[in-house]
């Protein structure tokens, strides 16, 4: 089994333009969006692969890929004596493929010549914008043992969530017999599958596709030869049901799809819980990222409660409550931060630059003094002045300008925005 597991390549789909995560995706691709104060979204599937001894990975992307390229180049450097790699495959025009990626399957199809340069028996296809911790070894072993053509990771969900997913129905042997995309609520009674007693007790009777697939090499080549199919979830999987042996691999751990600002914000703030559903402190499921060699964070008269503070921060804030503070953050005296994700900065200002900014009345990089910021997401390299008041919440309507956007009540300060002194968003 070990030898066969070495013949797995991972294909991580970088997603489309990421419009639902705007403005975080205005200047970067979705997999490059910072998460948890010090990581990038792409670190999650890559780390899951590395923890599962899968070390040959491709990341497929086409929008704003410069930041992602830099992160992967600076992070995933393996021994020259190993076969490990993380390669970015950006959409490229060729005589056979003159267009951009038209969907998830089309992205894989256009990149097939690169995959076929490598020896593999199984292709593990992953999404680049999901938060979860999974040992893919178990899934691969089940796929091999059951001699499946395709294996799909499935998540038990309740009746409230089921209409948001592609729902699969399995037989007694966990093979998928039918599939429906985002079923209407009245159809759900016909789509129950066999789940564990624990899931039944939680009212989770339906199996949702997680967008995680294993394909046998030959089948993947055959399927990719049909240039009419563009998407796995909408076309390839429904067409394969009933024609191929498709195994459901049930996963019962924490999983969330980082598809919009609300889910992204909640996933980050959820990391501050006493027992977070996504565990960053797990010896067996480490999250790998770029080693930046930053100094320890420094605090002065700051009361911190239920928060994550990343490396290299200089914090003189009055209070930080239930918040994630990213690398190199600087927060001034008297400031209160609550229920926020502050992404931090890519650089430090030196003393001379800070003095020059103060002389000219320009805001410093970071968050100024005597500010109040609540229910907000502050992107990287922002300059927020003194006495700024930002109070996000459901009382705010969706809105966007050159400085910030409001989505689902969450105030998103755009990357590099300069917020003047005494600015108010409430």
From TrEMBL:
The record's keywords, sorted A to Z, are: ATP-binding, Carbohydrate metabolism, Glycogen metabolism, Nucleotide-binding, Nucleotidyltransferase, Transferase
Tree of life domain:
Bacteria
Set out the biological process GO terms recorded for this chain's protein.
Answer: glycogen biosynthetic process
EC class of the enzyme, as a word? transferase
**A GO MF term:** ATP binding
The family database entries (Pfam families) matched by this protein are listed as: LbH_GLGC (PF25247), NTP_transferase (PF00483)
- Catalytic activity, EC: 2.7.7.27
InterPro entries, from UniProt? ADP-Glc_PPase, ADP_Glu_pyroP_CS, NTP_transferase_dom, Nucleotide-diphossugar_trans, Trimer_LpxA-like_sf
Protein family according to the UniProt entry: Belongs to the bacterial/plant glucose-1-phosphate adenylyltransferase family.
Name assigned to this protein = Glucose-1-phosphate adenylyltransferase
| Species this chain originates from | Flavobacterium petrolei
């Amino acid at each position: 089994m070990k030898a066969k597991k070495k013949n797995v390549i991972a294909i991580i789909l970088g997603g489309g333009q990421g419009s639902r995560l705007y403005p975080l995706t205005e200047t970067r691709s979705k997999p490059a969006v910072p998460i948890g104060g010090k990581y990038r979204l792409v670190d999650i599937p890559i780390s899951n692969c590395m923890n599962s001894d899968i070390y040959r990975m491709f990341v497929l992307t086409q929008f704003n890929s410069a930041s992602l390229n830099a992160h992967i180049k600076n992070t995933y450097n393996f021994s020259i004596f190993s076969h490990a790699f993380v390669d970015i495959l950006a959409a490229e025009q060729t005589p056979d493929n003159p267009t951009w990626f038209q969907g998830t399957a089309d992205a894989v199809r256009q990149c097939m010549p690169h995959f076929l340069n490598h020896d593999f028996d199984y292709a593990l296809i992953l999404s680049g914008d999901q938060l979860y911790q999974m040992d893919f070894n178990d899934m691969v072993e089940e796929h091999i043992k059951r001699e499946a053509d395709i294996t799909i990771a499935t998540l038990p969900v309740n009746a409230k969530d089921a209409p948001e997913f592609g729902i699969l129905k399995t037989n007694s042997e966990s093979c998928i017999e039918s599939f429906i995309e985002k079923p209407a609520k009245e159809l759900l009674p016909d789509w129950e599958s066999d789940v564990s007693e624990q899931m039944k007790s939680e009212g989770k009777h339906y199996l949702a596709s997680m967008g995680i697939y294993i394909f046998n090499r030959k089948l993947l080549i055959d399927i990719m030869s049909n240039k009419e199919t563009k998407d796995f979830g909408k076309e390839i999987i429904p067409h394969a049901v009933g024609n191929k042996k498709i195994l459901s691999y049930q996963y019962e751990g924490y999983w969330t799809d980082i598809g919009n600002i609300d889910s992204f914000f909640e996933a980050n703030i959820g990391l501050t819980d006493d027992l977070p559903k996504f565990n960053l402190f797990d010896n067996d499921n480490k999250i790998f990222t770029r080693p930046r060699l930053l100094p320890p964070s420094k605090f002065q008269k700051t009361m911190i409660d239920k928060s994550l503070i990343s490396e290299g921060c200089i914090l003189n804030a009055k209070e930080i409550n239930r918040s994630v503070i990213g690398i190199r953050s600087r927060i001034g005296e008297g400031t209160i931060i609550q229920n926020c994700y502050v992404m931090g900065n890519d650089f430090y200002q030196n003393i001379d630059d800070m003095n020059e900014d103060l002389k000219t009345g320009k805001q410093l990089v970071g968050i100024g003094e005597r500010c109040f910021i609540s229910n907000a997401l502050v992107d990287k390299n922002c300059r927020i002045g003194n006495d700024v008041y930002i109070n996000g919440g459901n009382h705010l309507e969706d809105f966007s300008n050159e400085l910030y956007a409001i989505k689902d009540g969450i105030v998103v300060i755009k990357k590099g925005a300069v917020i003047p002194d005494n600015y108010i968003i409430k």
